[in-house]
Amino acid sequence: MVSQNIRHEVRLLSRNYWFVSLSLVLVLLCLYAGYNGLRHFERRQADQQQAIAAQQEKEDLIQEVALNLSKGEEHPSAFRLSPMNVAIYTGQLATMPATEISKLAIGQSDLYTHQIKISSSEDLATLSFNELNNPVQLLFGNFDLAFVLTYLVPLVIIAFTYNLRTQELESGRLRLLASNPINTNLWLLQRFIIRYCSLAIILTFILTLTAVMVGMAFSLSLVTFFLLTYAYLAFWFAVSYLVNIYGYSSAKNAVSLLSLWILLVLILPTVINQAANTVYPMPSRVTLLNEIRQTKKELSQEQDRVLDEYLRNHPELIRNEGQNAYGYWQGYFASQELMEEELSPVINRFDEQLTKQQKWVDSWGLLSPAVLFQDGATELAGTSSKNYNEFKANVRSFSLDWRAHFMPFVFDNTMLEHSDLEALPKFEYRSILGTSGVLVNISVLLILSVLMAIRGLALEGKQELLSFSRS
Amino acid sequence: MLHAVNLTKKYQENLALDNLNLVIEPGDIYCLLGANGAGKSTTINLFLNFIAPTSGKAVIDQIEVSKDPQAIKKLIAYIPENLVLYNELSGLENLEYFVGLAGMKYQQDELVSFLQEAGLQSEAFKKRVKTYSKGMRQKIGVAMAIAKRAKVLLLDEPTSGLDPKASNEFSELLLRLSQQNVATLMATHDLFRAKETGTDIGIMKSGKLVEQLSTEEINHSDLEKLYLNHMNN
């Protein structure tokens, strides 16, 4: 029966102008989405390159000054080697490089910044990541390949399969088919699998074409992206199969499947996000900013007391010259650290709520195949909220190291030398996120698909009886 | 070959078939006559296992239909009133597909010979079925029965809507299959065709088989009178 069905479906599909036309439309949409992804990737790369070039210019300048001074020459910009200047003005650039897959799944990369100037004048609470928000807000926004696959491909699947059984039932052909020694639900499943394979082949072709067009190299991530796509397709085919088994009318099947699409792709992700906000509300950002300003103001008014208190906690920084030797910057650095200590409960509350929200979305996202697919795709692309949280943690940690590195210079009131520049900490984004999360998403989608297929097969006989007695 | 033993089908309170008993031997063409809703199609659906009997049993070749439907479906061929085929496929492709579902494999020339045997014109073999007349479609159904080497033919008003020539051709095909010992159960409204083609006639009314007779026992006009008599009472 399998070979018969394969030949049969290939004949039917190749003579179905609707299928051929829609496949062509899908090709065009994917290519356009790929082009959008590429454009976004290039823009991000260009922005990053521009920032890196500007940073390099600053670093070259202090290198030049340090070299001149080390040779005993004078330089009009010698002040640039002061620790405050290097720590604050020169700073460091933290960048989050774009991955190749981000051409396919822009994710939240248009919401977050990928390069941050790390400077000791920035307090960690106000570092701008745009993160103090629901992590999956505006999750589905760009017309990239992930958007086409998440939203449009399920509609294509529905269009090609919603009446695969009911068409036979309504025309009376199912009676003719069922007069043969076949298990009709298995026969139907085979037709679904053949159509699934047809669409998977078409999408593989389209994705490969898009990948080549946007200049992507073959990689494990790309293969995982393909697997995720196949699993997502399998889910929608399985849903349609089950609806076909239960359904008695093509019109009702179409309405049911579209309703499920609306529920699973549109409503459920929104409800999960909203519920995350309701269950774990974020503290007010205005309150946070007010608290920061208030604390800053209080600490700056009490600079001397603050410095005294700070030095009591950091006796290793006390110099023999006496307190009068400490100037504005020492007070500033000291107040910054104290401010962070005082604000840490507020900032931690944000982080905790954000983490809880993310966990909530991760857990309940299992209910929506769209969230599973989108999360998996953006995780592979390095554009998921998890990636940005990781980048943020990297930046925060590096900021502390950066400031700590300059403390001895500030309190010694010594200028940096050429050798000190070589020893400056360098930021490097290290991602420890693997593909295990994506593999879980793939497994969940496949398990759900198989369970639905088994359920459909188990209804053989009972459903046949009902359907025929109604015809 | 075909036995209905106290076969009864109820839909809630509606008795669609009431204690039907009949026997159809190989080579017999048994024509079930009756008004709409008399129980003719229900009888055929029970033999096809499309519905389950409320009581009694339908037996084909000593196998109870509801107990082993897959075995039964290897023995039977079914031709409904409107044989709906795949319009985008040719007659030959449709035959190949349906015969394949029955588990039979044939070469192209063998499939062609079945279509020829069923009386389909050779120029139609590779034309898409959407261009076929109803008579041509019914011939594909007969070709399926031939290819399937069916022992039993279940026909649900197969000549309804056919022109007299096509209807006559269809009857000739049935007679030819009958000579090959195929047992046929045919539900029909066509008294003339039943008398001409059938070996036996059963008249049904309100789910009951009210009359059984051999076609040799009765002429056309007496059959019509008998039928109308049952319908009017």
From TrEMBL, chain B:
<keyword id="KW-0813">Transport</keyword>
<keyword id="KW-0067">ATP-binding</keyword>
<dbReference type="Pfam" id="PF00005">
    <property type="entry name" value="ABC_tran"/>
</dbReference>
<keyword id="KW-0547">Nucleotide-binding</keyword>
<dbReference type="GO" id="GO:0016887">
    <property type="term" value="F:ATP hydrolysis activity"/>
</dbReference>
<dbReference type="InterPro" id="IPR003593">
    <property type="entry name" value="AAA+_ATPase"/>
</dbReference>
<dbReference type="InterPro" id="IPR051782">
    <property type="entry name" value="ABC_Transporter_VariousFunc"/>
</dbReference>
<dbReference type="InterPro" id="IPR017871">
    <property type="entry name" value="ABC_transporter-like_CS"/>
</dbReference>
<feature type="domain" description="ABC transporter">
    <location>
        <begin position="2"/>
        <end position="231"/>
    </location>
</feature>
<protein>
    <submittedName>
        <fullName>ABC transporter ATP-binding protein</fullName>
    </submittedName>
</protein>
<dbReference type="InterPro" id="IPR003439">
    <property type="entry name" value="ABC_transporter-like_ATP-bd"/>
</dbReference>
<dbReference type="GO" id="GO:0005524">
    <property type="term" value="F:ATP binding"/>
</dbReference>
<dbReference type="InterPro" id="IPR027417">
    <property type="entry name" value="P-loop_NTPase"/>
</dbReference>
